[in-house]
Amino acid sequence: MGADPVRSPYAAVRAWLDETPPDYLHTRHAQAELFFRRIGITFAVYGDSQADERLIPFDIIPRILSRTEWTKLEAGLIQRVTALNAFLSDIYGPREILKAGLIPPELVLRNPQFCLAAIERRPPHGIYTHIAGIDIVRTGADEFHVLEDNARTPSGVSYMLENREVMMRLLPELFDRHRVAPVETYADMLLGTLRSVAPPHCEGEPTVVVLTPGFHNSAYYEHSFLADKLGVDLVEGSDLFVRDDVLYMRTTEGPRRVDVVYRRVDDAFLDPLVFRPDSLLGAPGMMSAYKMGNLAIANAIGTGIADDKAIYSYMPEIVRFYTGEEPILRNVPTWRCREPESLAYVLDHLDELVVKEVDGSGGYGMLVGPHASSAERAAYAERLRADPARFIAQPTLALSTCPTLVDAGIAPRHVDLRPFVLTGRDGVQIVPGGLTRVALADGSLVVNSSQGGGTKDTWVLDD
């Protein structure tokens, strides 16, 4: 690994790498790829006619956090998700934060993700975001920052769990040198969270289902994986129907009442009677069951507005307003292009900034200024001038790196981290770790799987 300084949590990994032949590492890497291929852990890339299904590249060198680092992260995540839930409850109810003038009302009320059907329709137990994926980056200053909030249908947890299983199978000798906190409890925690938010009418154990758009969806593997891990039914819209404001699923033994839907379908496709009339992915009448208090939907209707990157820019104010505390985890500095002064700055510094669409995801539609050509920056500037409210900009951070196995040996590659935060009636829970995504190209800052990024197992070391 060379003579670069090694952070203390990596000391045992450094020693292991120094004594391990390169051929052994590459053999284990190939075996991991074979394992993933056999179990079918793939994802689809929309619009790519050359490759309908792909493996996400996996790196066998773990990303490691100390317990002290994790404890601070955990506290910050709990604070942030608590504030997000309070924000969603407020904007679909009394709108106190808008009355206080902390967020421009039009940014919320005219937002495409603001769901009219959710207004004054409080979900069971008042919880909106039951499963959140918060993207964390570590900077060269050795500080953690939140890069994005994913509060609608966050994905990737299946890779967190499968990555751990592969590592335990292929590199047991590395686990023997560490006390790694487990992530295997996630499925039990998720099922407990979903059952805890079931409507009050439930007698006995609530019936939970995972609703998928179907096998053509890019994350279908994860949907089926989670249903299997939870021990619940994986359903499509055609498996469901509503009668007397109650949701049922069709079974070989007759209709069975459904209490909780863990949906991996966007709002617009859940109920053709309320949203898109051409949708076949949901069930007609589902919203009537939801509004009558007979059904919990996780995540709740309307949570997508918390994914908006313009709303993200106000998260420090949101945390302070609802918790009365200073944010433990900072935002990345953000320019809102809807503001004339910010737009002028961004246009003058496009070669230094990362510019993103406020409703974008997956690394699509963004400009990485330092890596873009003059022509690309000029074309993006025209988009900014045409509709500045659609964009935010951030500095290109000096992101932290982790040792990564590449063809030439071990090299540093940029990473981020997506912990999965669960909120139920009994509070907020987080398994220690999350999904580490790694930018495999030398110098790249783009970790998204759709853009060629890979994943790592994330270890939190118990003291």
What does this structure look like?
It comes from Sphingomonas changnyeongensis. This protein has helices spanning 11-19, 22-39, 67-91, 96-99, 105-109, 157-170, 172-175, 186-196, 220-230, 286-291, 309-312, 315-323, 340-348, 374-386, and strands spanning 42-43, 54-55, 58-66, 131-138, 144-150, 208-211, 233-235, 240-243, 246-249, 256-257, 260-263, 296-298, 330-331, 335-336, 353-357, 367-368, 391-395, 401-406, 409-418, 420-424, 427-430, 435-438, 454-461. With 463 residues, the chain is an alpha+beta fold. The chain has three domains: 1-117 and 129-182 and 307-330 and 405-463, no CATH class; 200-294, Rossmann fold (3-Layer(aba) Sandwich); 333-396, Dna Ligase, domain 1. The longest helix is centred in the N-terminal third of the chain and has 25 residues, at 67-91. It is globular, with a radius of gyration of 22 Å. Mean pLDDT is 91; it is low at 46-51.
**Termini Cα gap:** 25 Å
Number of strands: 23
Pairing-aware structural class of the strands and helices? Answer: alpha+beta
Q: Uncertain segments of ≥5 residues (pLDDT<50)?
A: 46-51
Strand order of the largest sheet: 3-23-22-19-18
The major pleated sheet works out as: 5 strands, mixed
Q: Give helix % range.
A: 25-40%
Shape: globular
Overall domain count: 3
Beta-strand content estimate: 15-25%
Calculate Rg over CA atoms. Answer: 22 Å
> What is the number of helical segments per DSSP (H or I, 4+ residues)?
14
**Mean of residue pLDDT?**
91
